[in-house]
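Quick one:
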Amino acid sequence: MLAALAPHLPEALLPDALAAARAIDREDYCAEALAALAPHLPEWLLPDALAAARAIVYAEGRAKVLAALAPHLPEAERHAVLSEALAACAIDWEGSRAKALAALAPHLPQALLPAALEAARAIDWEGSRAKALAALAPHLPEAERHAVLSEALAACAIDWEGSRAKALAALAPHLPQALLPAALEAARAIDWEGSRAKALAALAPHLPEAERHAVLSEALEAARAIDWEGSRAKALAALAPHLPQALLPAALEAARAIDWEGSRAEALTALAPHLPDTLLPDALAAARAINREQFRAKVLAALAPHLPEAERHAVLSDALAAARAIADGGARVEALRALAPHLPKWLLPAALKAARAIGDGGARVEALRALAPHLPETLLPAALKAARAIADGGARVEALRALAPHLPETLLPAALKAARAIADGGARVEALRALAPHLPETLLPAALKAARAIDPEEYRAAVLAALAPHLAALPAPLRYRCWAETLPLLARRPRPQLLADLGALLPLIAAIGGADAAGEMFQAMQDVARWWP
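Output:
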């Protein structure tokens, strides 16, 4: 929460935010909050933040916060703090050490880069060492860069071929032309076809154009040679965006040759956006030959946007028919999600009917979420009815959340009524919070009334906080009326509850009382606490 709030807090609240971050017991969360606050702290708070960072025992967290603070410190202190951050990177687990060095690299002055380089070179595991060296290389003087990238490339000689391919792929964008032949040789030396295809595909875009076609052809041959069809499909899918047009017929042939329909559908779906017009009829025939509806619908949905308009509607109709025939709710959701952005208006009623017919509430929610942005206003009452019919409170919340941004003003009273009718307190809170940004000013007083009635206090404060910015934007007379009706009710509650509610309503209080209202309220709280402890 503090990380999300940090960019929006006024300077007057930053000391409290820093104190809240420092009070977090779990050090990784504390570090995350302090790092998020660092760019927003005024100069006079930086010493406190620095003390908080230095107090973190967890080395990776300490390094993260020190690195985040350093660019904002006076120049005289910056070098020493970055030196501390670098020392904190001496983490036992080498993966974390490489990650910390990579995060620190862009902030290090030239004087500290040799020490960082030494720390990276001391990493035993080749994959992590290659990662750290590659992250440091762009910040080194040009005269050293080639040698360090050469070391990183040498570190990619990892026994496990999956990790070797991953390391080469990560290094590829940083390599100068002079090192690409050695990287290519390392990729070609990988025995397992799946990893070899991955490494070659990652290197190909960085090669001179004259070599690129041949290397991608090798990668495609490696992918086609993979025995296990699941891995073969994934390799073809990963290659699809990089293949030149001349290689796409072979890729399509390889995809059609996969026996298991799920993997065949995966490969065909990945190829669909890249196929030239001449290959689309063959891909369409391959899609229609798939027996399982969920896989057939997936490929037809992927192909449809790329077909001539005269064919597109018929293919989308076939895909929707396949989706409606899928018995499993989750699989039907996936098919509807793939289809939703492409369906013409005349097919949307049938798609909504298919969503409403899903038995499982959670799956029905996901189907409504996928369709909601594409439904015309005439279908939204039926979609809202489907949401209100979901028995489970949590699932109903998610359905209302998905629909809320798309509902016309005429349907929002019914949505608010549905939210207020949810029996479970936590779910009701979430529903009201989801609706709050979309409610017109005529409905905000009713939403506020519903919020005031909520117990326990943390639930109530959450809804009040969601409503407050919108209440603050109301015309002055309505704003005052809401406040006048609310304050006496809140004042009857115990002091901790009142304070939580007032904190949640701060935007409304500021809108009524002006810029000084929050400070005066804070002073009043301190006075009351002193007079009546």
